[in-house]
Each structure stands twice: as structure tokens, then as C-alpha cells.
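Known limitations

Files may contain more than one protein. Parsers should not assume a single record per file. Below, a two-record file is shown to illustrate correct handling: read the sequence, read the C-alpha cell line, then continue until end of file.
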Amino acid sequence: MSVADRVGGLALEHSLPVDAARQLLALVELLAADPLAPTAITAPDRSIDVHIADSLSALAIPEVRRARRIADIGSGAGLPGLVLAIALPAARVTLLESVQRKCAFLERAKALAGADNAVVVRCRAEAWREGSDRHDLVTARAVAPLAVLCEYAAPLLATGGQLVAWKADVSDAERLAGERAAPEVGLELTAVVRTAPYAGSADHRLFMYTKIADTPGRFPRRPGMARKHPLGGPR
């Protein structure tokens, strides 16, 4: 099956808009052609599975489908943020990335794909005060441990909004730290969704936290503190 046919199959599987297959194919081709693509997996036959299908797997969650203001933390090569922008053209998707060379790639990728609903913001999540309390969905893939993600995401979410974190293997310690950290920032773990986005995939999970209370004013802490001194430690 050709690359175009595989991308088209994903578009049909997820009931994507009519232009989505073309846009996703443009992203797959750019990942393969651009030597500065910020990912180690660039071959189309692999990137379709590992990047595109994996990003689209979150559409199984109704709250993701309904989201209209999305912030993708540590967007990197636009995964999952740019893929979701293509899949959800009615949503405004902020691709939040602190590294300039990755931002430059994101600008090229969104222009080539024609994802006009995506905007690239060069900033750390902790420092992006303009995004506070505005989003109904925050996404993160291969960014940080769960406790750190909770602290990054909570200030950006409106009450009732969701953080969805892509995870593979999660240790008991990481999961427990996330459960302890969540209430400190106004979140609650509401679902862990097992996914199998492509043949042979294993241990894929989407951790979903819902913002159920205001995030205390002491958050976000200054950049770097969430990693240096993460919430959710032993009590």
C-alpha cells in the first residue's frame, strides 16, 4: 500500500475532514525530506504509524474531539499538536515550543500543510502567562513525567478542561506522583485510555486529567522548578 493510501486510510478511519489526508501527507513528506526535522523517526512507513496514527489515537476521547482551544506543550515536530490541528480545523491550536530550531520547523510544517488554525509560540509552558486559564485541552507527548505535566498544564486550562498525556511504560512511582500532584494544581485523574494506534504497538496509554478547581496562585513556579523539585513526592 502506498504512503498516500495509508494516510488516506487513517483519515477515513478517524472521519477526518476532506482535506486532512492531503495535509497529513504533506507533514509525512516533510518529516522525510527535511534534514532539520526534530525527530529520529522520519521514514514515511514508520512516521505514519509512530507519529500520525499515534497522534490521531486521542480522537477516541470525546473531549478531544470537542476541544476548540488547544495548547500542545513541547510540540517539537508538531506531534500531536499539528496533527490535531489538521484533524480539528474548527479548533485553534497553539504549538508551544521553547527551542528556536524546532519552532522554525513548525512554521515550515504548518505552512506546507496549510494548517491555518495552528499558531507557533516560542515559550516555555511555565512562562506563557498569555495562555493562562484559556484552554479546554492541553496535550503533551514525550515531554515529561506525569507530575511535571500536571504542573505545566493546569495553569493553562479553563475549569472543566482536560490534560491528555501520551505515555508508554509508566512506572508505579510515576503514576503515584502524578496522582499526588494533580490535586495540588486543581486537577483530577479521570481516565487512562489504552490505545493500539498501529499493528505491533504496545503499552500505549493516554492519561486524562480534568481541571476541577482553580489552580493556586503560586503556580506556575518559575521555569525549571517543576523538573528540579517535582510535585507529588513521597508523603
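...continuing to the second record:
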Amino acid sequence: MADAESVGQDASYDLVCFFDCFHDMAVAGKAAKNACRILKQGGMVMLIEMMGPYDDSVSAHLALPSTAMLTCFSCHFCTPSGMCDSGDALGTVVPTSKHEKLFVDAAGFKSLDSLESGLNEIGFRLLLAKK
């Protein structure tokens, strides 16, 4: 059995998907680096995450109507899960700027874009990281 840090062979995939799970991972940063390793040049990561602001500021978080409910979930489920084994502890409402740091700055992706989609209407966002 493989884990998020070691699954896959170098440059062998076109697409890696994280569906409402990346923020729960104790090894989120390592999973992002591994995704970059196993993707072919031009490959992409598709993340579906809960709606969050771009900036990690109190005012940006409070501008979202779902913040109170999602922060409650985060305190009780997502953040403790992400803290396992000294993990990244991202929490439910990860700001897009944090995803950029993990995928572009640390893992080596060229870009991370937040795309408008029907998911926005149900409280999620679609993010694409391009290698």
C-alpha cells in the first residue's frame, strides 16, 4: 500500500486529483511535492476544496458567509486530522494564498488558478495547479 508521499512513478501521470481531502492531510505539503514528481510535464493537479478567501486575514474569512460553519468543522475534524504526526494542520478553510505557497513556491508547480465553476454555488472551489 502506498501513501500520499510516495505513490506513483516519476512523470507517469497527466492528472492528480484531490477531492475535498487536501486540507485534511497531515502530509499536505509532501503530497503536493509528490504530485509534482509523478506528473508529466504539462500535467495538472485538480483540487476541489471548501470555499475560502484568497488572503489569510480575519476580514477575508469573515466576508464569506460559510466561515462560521466551516471553522466549526475545522476545529473539530479537519485541523486535528491535519495535525497528526506533526502535520501541516491546514484546516477546512485554507486560503488560496496558502495553496499557492504549497504548490507553486514549495512543490515546483508553474501556477495555481482558482476557476469559476458550478461548485462555487454549493460552497466549494476548483483549483488547478499546472506543472
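Parsers that stop after the first record will miss the second one. For reference, the second record is described as follows. The helical segments are 28-38, 58-62, 67-82, 96-106.
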